[in-house]
């Protein structure tokens, strides 16, 4: 019985290895000078064509799918792009939003921000004060 199970497992593994190339997807290699940003404890991923990366100094920026740096690593923390904007934290620990070119579209003046959804984003100035922009 044990030999049958091992044989079946080996056969299955070999058949999957033959099928795998047909299921291959394109993978973007992240340049060595960056590490993938581990946002919210989730595996890194592209959002709206950009991925957050972290440099050796612990600063965050974004690369495109070719691995080219699009937005320099200059932020203390970042969030993924949503509706064309990403929340970023500056050196003063205040949050704002940038667009996909890196242009600041909402000044870093909030204690915390959440991603845009349906044209709105929640922001806080303190632990309890919540607003919408």
Plain-language structure description:
The chain is mainly β and 133 residues long. 14% of the residues lie in helices and 35% in strands. The protein has one helix at 2-19; strands spanning 34-36, 51-55, 60-63, 69-75, 77-78, 85-89, 95-99, 104-110, 112-113, 122-124, 130-132. Strands 1-2-3-4 form a four-stranded antiparallel sheet, with no helix packed on it. It has a four-stranded antiparallel sheet with strand order 5-6-7-8, with no helix packed on it. The longest helix has 18 residues, at 2-19. Residues 16-28 have low confidence and may be disordered.
Brief write-up:
It contains one helix and eleven strands; from the N terminus they run H-E-E-E-E-E-E-E-E-E-E-E. It has 133 residues and is mostly beta strands.
Which residues sit in consecutive blocks of at least 5 with pLDDT less than 50?
A: 16-28
- Look at the structure and give the CATH class: Mainly Beta
Number of strands: 11
The end-to-end distance, rounded to whole angstroms, is 65 Å
Q: What general outline do the C-alpha atoms trace? A: globular
Specify the biggest β-sheet. Answer: 4 strands, antiparallel
Stated plainly, the CATH topology is called Lipocalin
Strand order of the largest sheet: 1-2-3-4
Structural class: mainly beta
The oligomerization state is single chain
CATH architecture: Beta Barrel
Instruction: Give the radius of gyration.
Output: 21 Å
Percent helix range:
10-25%
Strand content: 25-35%
Mean pLDDT across residues: 75
Tally of helical runs? 1
Order of helices and strands: HEEEEEEEEEEE
Number of domains: 1
């Amino acid at each position: 019985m044990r030999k049958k199970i091992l044989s079946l497992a080996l056969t299955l593994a070999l058949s999957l290895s033959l099928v795998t190339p047909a299921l291959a997807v394109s993978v973007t290699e992240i340049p060595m000078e960056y590490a993938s940003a581990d946002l919210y404890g989730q595996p890194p991923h592209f959002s709206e064509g950009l991925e957050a990366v972290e440099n050796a100094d612990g600063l965050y920026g974004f690369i495109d799918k070719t691995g080219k740096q699009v937005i320099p690593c200059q932020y203390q923390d970042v969030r993924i792009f949503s509706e064309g904007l990403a929340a970023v934290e500056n050196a003063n620990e205040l949050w704002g939003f940038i667009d996909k070119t890196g242009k600041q579209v909402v000044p870093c003046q909030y204690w915390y921000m959440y991603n845009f959804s349906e044209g709105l984003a929640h922001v806080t100035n303190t632990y309890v004060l919540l607003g919408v922009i």
